[in-house]
Specification:
single chain, mainly alpha, 3 helices
Length: 72
């Protein structure tokens, strides 16, 4: 298995947990395919990446203000 990839069973389990945590039901999850689970994980990962980038930008702005740098 390549670095950064999940087995189909692991990705399905992670997608299931995320689905339940966001209000899904076990009965409805049974209708999802492996591709659906992969799409859910990809979109969740992309969203978390976006959040981290925005957080880092915010930290950078605070640090710049602390040291008197002007916004460009």
């Amino acid at each position: 298995m390549a670095k950064g990839t999940l087995s189909p069973q692991t990705s399905l389990l992670l997608a299931y947990g995320l689905y339940l945590a966001h209000g899904g039901t076990p009965e409805d999850f049974d209708r999802f395919s492996q591709e659906d689970a992969d799409i859910m994980l990809a979109s969740y990962t992309a969203y978390r990446t976006f959040e981290r980038v925005e957080l880092i930008k915010g930290f950078a702005q605070v640090i710049a203000k602390m040291f008197g740098a002007e916004k460009r």
